[in-house]
Amino acid sequence: MDQKDVKQFRIVRSTEENEHLPSIIRFTGRQMFVSLIGFSFIIFLLSFLIISRTSLREYIPGVPSSKIKKELIAINQQLDSIGDISEKNETYYRNISHILNDQDTILPFDRIDPLKKIESPELSKSDKNIDFINKIENREKFNTIEVTTEEESLKSRMFFTPVQGLITDKFDFNKKHFGVDLVANTNEPIKAVLNGSVIFADWTSDNGYIIAIQHKDDLISIYKHNSALLKKVGDYVRYGEVISIIGNTGKLSHGPHLHFELWYNGYPIDPEEAILF
After folding, report:
1. 219 — phi, psi (to 5°)?
2. In a 10 Å sphere around its CB, with 0-12 CB exposed, 13-18 middle and 19+ buried, how is residue 226 labelled?
3. Confidence (pLDDT) at 21
4. Which of 99, 183, 189, 238 maximizes the CB count within 10 A of its CB?
5. For residues 176 and 107, what is the distance between their CA atoms, to the nearest angstrom?
């Protein structure tokens, strides 16, 4: 293309002071196009930086506002919390079902057995402390478990004796006998050991008529082999209130008696540690 055919533009700038010597800027169409593109890019870049680094970005379609982000985070936390609670409740009710059917319970991995004896390091028996250590050992040799704050709270409660009778079979964790067997008079009433709500009251083939009561602080009392149940699920019972009649029901029963269990935080405990029979 001939240089004469290229269209040229010029901008003339003049003022009153230099009216006779105006400023002239000459450029071609291509130069003008490139300048407009560059100017537009700079405007776009500046606009993007301003919007992305200020609160104006919330007005861009599809970009969530800070308020919405906070609400989404709160909702996710609530969903996680609900999931944890749901899982714990499911484990809790499955444990109750296993307890009532003499099956192994599902123990949480992050919970320490409150009745498990904690091994303490051996102390050197020097001349200075040997008397003190002997006193401690003599005092503790009659204790079957390490006393914790939770156990102190449990032992400080006033339990009502479920029935006056003779213990014929004691608690034995190793043999999976998670309660005590009490022989009493025929048709002797069974009473609630504490205030609580009935969570199970029904028949099972192995243990006959069972009634279970939920008390405060994850404590459950269970009464098996009854001849009759006087309360139903959902009933609130009070300390010493009659809940059933002693019996000889279920395949595992070999005579009229009460099999009584206490479960604390998902663990079976020896009822004789808490109740004076």
Report:
1. -105, 130
2. buried
3. 58
4. 99
5. 15
Q: What is the tens place of the pLDDT at every residue in 106-163? A: 554 444 344 444 344 444 445 555 565 455 455 444 443 343 445 556 667 889 999 9
Name the burial class of residue 190, with classes exposed (0-12), middle (13-18) and buried (19+) by CB atoms within 10 angstroms of its CB: buried
What end-to-end distance do the CA atoms of the chain give, in Å?
117
Nearest-angstrom CA–CA distance, 58 and 66: 8
Q: Cα 217–223–226 angle (5° rounding)? A: 160
Question: Helix, strand, or coil here: 134?
Answer: helix
Per-residue pLDDT tens digits for 185-239: 999 999 999 999 999 999 999 999 999 999 998 899 999 999 999 999 999 999 9
Domains and CATH numbers, the chain: 3-59 (no CATH), 149-273 (2.70.70.10)
Give mean pLDDT, residues 49-63.
68
Q: What does the block give as tokens for 119?
A: 């091994």
**Position 256 pLDDT exceeds 50:** yes
Residue that has been written with the tokens 């914790």 in this structure: 148
What's the CA gap between 267 and 42, in Å, rounded? Answer: 71
Averaged pLDDT of the chain: 76
Query: How many CB atoms neighbour CB 191 within 10 A?
Result: 19
- From residue 51, alpha-carbon distances to 39, 55, 59, 61, 269 in Å are 18, 7, 9, 12, 65
The encoded tokens of residue 170 equal 């004691």
247 with 210: CB under 8 angstroms?
no
DSSP for 44-95, written as a single string: HHHHHHHHHTSGGGGGSTT---HHHHHHHHHHHHHHHHHHHHHHHHHHHHHH
Under DSSP, is residue 6 helix (H, G, I), strand (E, B) or coil?
Answer: coil
